[in-house]
Design brief:
Layout lengths: L4 H6 L3 H10 L4 H16 L4 E5 L9 E5 L3 E7 L3 E6 L22 E6 L6 H17 L1
Antiparallel strand pairs: 1-2, 2-3, 3-4, 4-5
Helix pairs in contact: 3-4
Length: 137
């Protein structure tokens, strides 16, 4: 069930918007987004959640997690959840989580497709490295 304008008008806080987005996706994408969100909050309890790029064609917007700058965004597509790290090219990725946007000078992404698993320890390390890179800049 898609998130509607009425759903978004009820509570405009980022947390509520992301909660509504996850609840509106009872399939594997909602589960992946919820898992990523839990991992990010566990790795960096002081992380700031936001929803950016809301528009008529995407009223739910894009979940964004920041700490000293954007760490990661969580875009939802029909066939994947795309986790984009704007400064991903500067991060070490010893386990090879990044599997998309590999040719860019700055960003890197993780495309999670149905049935794929995210390595919690590797993802946590990547999120912490992104926060360290933001603080070092």
């Amino acid at each position: 069930m898609p998130v509607t304008s009425a759903d978004l008008a009820s509570d405009d806080s980022a947390t509520a918007l992301i909660d509504a987005r996850i609840a509106a996706l009872p399939d594997w994408r909602g589960a992946v987004l919820a898992q990523v969100r839990r991992l990010i909050h566990a790795a960096l309890p002081e992380v700031y959640e936001d929803v950016k790029w809301r528009k008529p064609s995407n009223p739910a917007g894009v979940p964004v997690w920041s700490l000293g700058g954007i760490l990661c965004t969580g875009e939802l597509y029909k066939d994947k959840v795309k986790l984009t790290f704007p400064r991903g090219a500067a991060l070490l990725d010893p386990t090879g989580l990044f599997n998309a946007s590999l040719d860019g000078n700055a960003r890197r992404a993780i495309d999670v497709r149905e049935g794929a698993a995210i390595d919690p320890a590797a993802f946590t390390a990547l999120v912490q490295a992104a926060a360290a890179a933001n603080h070092a800049a």
